[in-house]
Design a protein that fits this description.
The structure holds two protein chains of two kinds. By secondary structure, chain A is of the alpha+beta class. Chain A contains 14 helices and 14 strands. In chain A, helix 4 packs across helix 5, helix 4 packs antiparallel against helix 13 and helix 7 runs antiparallel to helix 11. The C terminus of chain A is likely disordered. The longest helix of chain B is centred in the C-terminal third of the chain and has 21 residues. Chain B is globular, with a radius of gyration of 16 Å. The chains are: A alpha+beta, B alpha/beta.
């Protein structure tokens, strides 16, 4: 009979810092805690008393990896509060901006953070020495994502061109010409990336998740749609607070989000894909089939393939949007603030990102709620480990620790969004 | 000396880039930070101070610290100076200076960048891929508090001013014609 405690002191290659604690007694897992430290609510408090127009740029600073997601959820929630509709080319440009961010974020995770797990490297630096070509390709693919974001967002980091009602400045059609050529090149490499990830070795692991993602009548979701699940959920983002509740748990400063009366759920690329396979472009569907993943994927380790399918989709969609683009007459629609509450969910690279703002009649923010994807997945990550660890319980400590870290990295957890500086410590006691 | 054993046809560092004459190409000053994480904003403060002295000698780039974006940011640069907040056991406000060509960067040094693939990893990955610029100096400013908030500690504010001055001097020195 073996009793031991595993503490992961740093979850390496996870955005931010966090800690993982697993207790094993008599060969059985008796406790799993993903710990997140530090109060996450600073930004919600910081926004109170600010002008509504500041929300996109302030919330963009919550995460260095997904600023566009925060901007998109912020502007859509404000527009919901003010009864503003952004359509046509401006709406398309927002989808394009999101394509750029998905590409950047997913490629970074696939090649720099997740792939080394499957190939047995400590990190991307070690992997680069043996497989420079995949790292070089990933850097180039990520760069095309950056180019989209910097063209539309005004700069690469923390785009500043987004406003409630549209953009400060809209690009001319000709501005896209050089980018379009590079995107076509990148789309071909994206197809190869799907093939490459499909050849990685995957543990045999599946769970019957409740997947939650946006679903739109005719698009793969970025900014709009109803929140649906494979277990009957079908709501407007306006009903989010009646459906999802956040629970405080003692071991974490991030709140655990659950479906009221039902429990944990799963957001992110695998949920989006499994609920919206039929909305992917023909090319992306074909690549997924060729990679051997079914239209509903329940193995979280295969999320690396799903991410690469979404990267391919994002290239495909970006090319479609640019080819159909005509410069709009005005870069934004008129916005008249009024008292009210606005709600929005958009699909951040890591899953649904909920924003709610209460605004007074002078356009000042009175109250805010922000629920990032990682805090929604936290409970699901713990449950994965409850099921996953028993299969590997006899591995040497360092190997088991690595397996656990890999299982956490399946979710690309952005702990700097959920809360900052999550520190993952793994420590074992015999 | 470096690269003597390298094949002349492989590796971008053998063939001088047309702009690889320091006195013709501007230095890239990459300033890293998050404005809402207390002293993490040290690099951004230095950027603001340098912008007051706008010059063709250098180009200021603000960055969040995400590693792949950093590799891109310095891709076409010959000479790079990076400024970031650091955490070691030194006194708050201590200024560290690293010459990347001669020193590897300890992982964890820049741990308060919120990214697991951050500056230290970017430098070492670029080294592995032979994508480091000819010259790279990193200034690290020891932070005191990284709590949420938009104010710098006094120590870091002082250090930021010192670093801005030193960066200007580095750029100036670099442009002297008989640099050896």
């Amino acid at each position: 009979m073996k009793n031991k405690t595993i503490k992961v002191g740093y979850l390496a290659r996870v955005e931010g810092e966090g800690a993982l604690y697993i207790k094993v007694k008599g060969g059985r897992v008796t406790d799993v805690k993903l710990k997140i430290f530090e109060p996450p609510r600073f930004f919600e408090a910081f926004l109170r008393g600010r002008d509504f127009a500041e929300a996109p740029d302030i919330t963009a600073r919550i995460c260095g990896i997904c600023p566009v997601a925060y901007q998109m959820s912020a502007v859509h929630a404000m527009e919901d509060a003010f009864g503003v509709k952004v359509e046509g080319q401006l709406r398309a440009l927002r989808r394009l901006l999101y394509c750029g961010e998905w590409i950047e974020s997913h490629v970074l995770h696939i090649a720099m953070l997740h792939a080394p797990d499957f190939l047995g490297y400590q990190d991307a630096i070690g992997m680069a020495k043996d497989h420079p070509e995949i790292v070089e390709t990933a850097l180039k693919l990520k760069k095309t994502g950056n180019e989209i974001v910097s063209l539309l967002g005004g700069r690469e980091i923390h785009p500043i061109n987004v406003r409630v009602g549209g953009f400060y400045k809209a690009p001319a059609k000709r501005d896209f010409a050089p980018l379009l050529e590079r995107l076509k090149w990148a789309r071909d490499r994206g197809r190869e990336l799907v093939r490459w990830t499909a050849r990685l070795p995957f543990p045999d692991f599946e769970r019957d998740y409740e997947f939650v993602a946006l679903r739109h009548p005719d698009e793969y979701p970025f900014n709009e749609g109803r929140l649906v699940s494979n277990k009957g959920l079908d709501i407007s983002p306006r009903d989010y607070d009646d459906t999802f509740v956040e629970e405080h748990v003692e071991h974490s400063n991030a709140l655990h989000s659950v479906i009221a009366g039902r429990g944990e759920y799963f957001v992110g690329p695998m949920a989006r894909y499994s609920l919206n396979f039929d909305r992917l472009s023909a090319l992306a569907q074909e690549a997924a089939r060729e990679a051997g993943i079914s239209p509903v994927c329940r193995n979280p380790f295969q999320s690396i393939i799903v991410r690469s399918v979404e990267v391919l989709y994002a290239f495909d969609e970006a090319i479609r949007i640019i080819e159909a683009y005509e410069m709009p007459d005005r870069p934004s629609v008129e916005v008249r603030p009024r008292a009210g509450t606005g709600y929005s969910c958009t699909e951040a690279p890591r899953g649904s990102l909920y924003h709610r703002y209460q605004i007074d009649d002078g356009g000042m923010i009175v109250d805010t709620k922000i629920v990032p994807p990682t805090s929604q997945n936290q409970k699901t990550i713990e449950s994965d480990l409850w099921q996953f660890v028993p299969d590997y319980i006899d591995l040497p400590d360092t190997d088991l620790k690595w397996k656990c870290e890999q299982a956490v990295r399946n979710y690309d957890p952005c702990i700097s969004c959920a809360t900052h500086f999550l520190r993952l410590e793994v420590e074992r006691e015999q | 000396m470096k690269d003597e054993n390298k094949s002349p046809v492989s590796g971008s560092s053998f063939i001088p880039h047309p702009s690889s004459f320091p006195n013709r190409a501007p230095a890239y000053v990459i300033c890293i930070g998050n404005p809402y994480r207390g002293d993490d904003a040290a690099g951004l403060r230095v950027a603001r101070l340098l912008k007051e002295k706008a010059s063709r000698d250098f180009k200021i780039i603000e960055a969040s610290g995400e590693g792949a974006a950093l590799i891109e940011a310095w891709a076409d640069a010959v000479r790079v100076i990076i400024v970031d907040a650091v955490v070691s056991s030194a006194e708050p406000g201590t200024v560290h200076r690293l010459d990347v060509q001669s020193q590897s960067v300890p992982q964890g040094f820049f741990r308060y960048s919120t990214h697991a693939f951050g500056l230290a990893e970017a430098i070492e990955l670029a080294r592995a891929l032979d994508r480091l610029p000819a010259s790279m100096i990193v200034y690290g400013i020891e932070g005191k508090s990284f709590d949420a908030g938009d104010a710098l500690s006094e120590e870091v504010e002082r250090a930021a001013r010192e670093v801005a001055e030193r960066v200007l001097r580095e750029v100036e020195t670099d442009r002297r014609p008989n640099r050896s």
